[in-house]
Amino acid sequence: DTGVSQDPRHKITKRGQNVTFRCDPISEHNRLYWYRQTLGQGPEFLTYFQNEAQLEKSRLLSDRFSAERPKGSFSTLEIQRTEQGDSAMYLCASSFDGPPDTQYFGPGTRLTVL
Amino acid sequence: GNSVTQMEGPVTLSEEAFLTINCTYTATGYPSLFWYVQYPGEGLQLLLKATKADDKGSNKGFEATYRKETTSFHLEKGSVQVSDSAVYFCALPYNAGNMLTFGGGTRLMVKP
What we know:
The structure holds 2 protein chains of 2 kinds.
Chain A: E1 5-7, E2 10-13, E3 19-24, E4 31-37, E5 44-50, E6 53-57, E7 65-68, E8 75-79, E9 88-95, E10 104-105, E11 109-113
Parallel strand pairs in A: 2-11
Antiparallel strand pairs in A: 1-3, 3-8, 4-5, 4-9, 5-6, 7-8, 9-10, 9-11
Chain B: E1 3-6, E2 11-14, E3 19-21, E4 23-26, E5 33-38, E6 44-50, E7 56-59, E8 62-65, E9 75-77, E10 86-93, E11 100-102, E12 106-111
Parallel strand pairs in B: 2-12
Antiparallel strand pairs in B: 1-4, 3-9, 5-6, 5-10, 7-8, 8-9, 10-11, 10-12
C-alpha cells in the first residue's frame, strides 16, 4: 500500500507534556498538509508544505505547535505543553503540485490529553 | 476566502432509498469541488470531484454536478446501501492556496 501513513494512530498524554506525530506522504507527492478534526466537525487546516518549505500556517497553529518537513519527504508535527483543548484527530494529506490538487488523507492520529 | 455550507445531519434512510446531501459554496472564480467520505474509525477518503463548472463527478454510484448558477455541488445516490453509512464532507480550496475548507459533515445512517 502506497497511501499516506501516520504514526502513531493513537496517543494519550498528560497535560503539559510534549508530543510529536509523524506523517509519510505518498512518495511522489511534493505537497503535504496538516489538518485538525474535532469530534463532530469537519477538518480545519493547520499548515502546508511544498517540498521542504512551509508555505502557509493557520492562525489555529499557536506557537506551541511546530511542523517540519526536512528533505521534503516525511513531516513531523510537534505540540509542546499540551492542553486538554488540543485533544483531536490530527490528519495529514498529500498531493501533487498542480491542479486539481486532489489531496489524499492518512488515517489520522487521535490525541487525547488528560 | 472561499467557504462551503452543507446540510446538517443525521440523515436516516432505509436501504435502496434515494439520497441527496446539499452543499452550497461561496468562491472567487471556479475552484475544484470535492466530496470526501469518512467511514467509522477511518480517515477521509476522496469520494468524487469536479474541476470545472458543469462537470459531473461520480464514483461508487454517487454523483455530484458542479453548478455555478446555483453555486451548488449536491451529492446524490439513487439507491443507498447499509455500507454507505458514513460521514460525508463537501470541500473546496480556501483561497488561491491549496488548503481545503470543509463543511461540517453530514452523517448518513442507512437501515436495512
